Amino acid sequence: MAKKSIEARQRKREAMVAKFAEKRAALKAAGDYQGLDQLPKNASPVRLKNRCQLTGRPKGYMRYFGLSRIMFRDMALAGKIPGITKASW
Q1: Coil, helix or strand at residue 67
Q2: Taking CA 7 as the corner, what is the angle to CA 42 and CA 77, rounded to the nearest 5 degrees?
Q3: Residue 88: Cβ within 10 Å count
Q4: What's the pTM?
Q5: Radius of gyration in angstroms for the set of CA atoms belonging to the chain, rounded to a whole number
Q6: How far apart are alpha carbons 39 and 48 in whole angstroms?
Q7: φ, ψ of residue 59 in degrees (nearest 5)
Q8: pLDDT (tens digit, 9 = 90+) per residue, 20-40?
Q9: Rounded to 5 degrees, what are φ and ψ at 83?
């Protein structure tokens, strides 16, 4: 499990990206780079990190499922992800 402070920081960044998305797109389309510099750093979507939805783990993230590899394996073996079976040949 990730620390609660790290998860809170991530949620704060997500909210700020959503808040400034429209303004950011307008400034970018107009080519106003001075205006873009005035926006908060955390308003940039580049600063977001993909994290596991269950544990908050940043590494081994599987984008299609939104889970880390560890949670994906646990859930797949428990049969909680439809259509996923353990390979055997």
Answers
A1: strand
A2: 130
A3: 4
A4: 0.77
A5: 18
A6: 16
A7: -100, 150
A8: 999 999 999 999 999 999 999
A9: 85, 0
Tokens for 88, please give them.
Answer: 């055997």
The number of residues making up the chain comes to 89
Encoding tokens for residue 47?
């600063």
Pairing of strands 61-62, 67-68: antiparallel
* pLDDT band at residue 1 under the 50/70/90 scheme: confident
**In this structure, what DSSP letter does residue 45 have?**
G
**Greatest Cα-to-Cα distance within the chain, rounded to the nearest angstrom:** 59
Helix/strand/coil for 51: coil
- Which two three-digit tokens encode residue 51? 């994290």
Residue 86 contacts by C-beta under 8 Å, 6 or more apart in sequence?
76, 77
